[in-house]
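Lab notebook: predicted structure, single chain.

Context: the supervisor wants predicted structures on file for every construct in the current expression panel, including those that have not yet been purified. This is the next one on the list. No modifications to the sequence; it matches the entry in the shared construct table.
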Amino acid sequence: MSHMRKEIAPAVGWLALGNPVEAWAVLEELPPEDRARGDVLALRVEILLALHRWEDAAVIAAGLLRLHPLDADARIYLARALCRLGRPEEARRHAEQVSILRPDLRLVMLECADLERLW
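Prediction complete. Output recorded below exactly as produced.
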């Protein structure tokens, strides 16, 4: 989120401080037309993962992928959620795609606790 808009910066901060509930509350205060922006949806997925709401995270991450099929971050989010949902084969397919799209993210995936069972 290098080009983060200022209105979601507080949510990013709350999430970094380990308070996903407050992060979610910040996003809920956004105008309805901003809630469907890609950066907001990606942050929602990160918050849902932090809240261990795997199914909800998977649904939003899959939606992000439909909009942006080459989005490596969305694939990582989806792989993490699928892995936690006990669907490692689907998760592995997405992780392998990330390795092709963005080889530089392979180490990030290897260090991700949500993806441990894939390796």
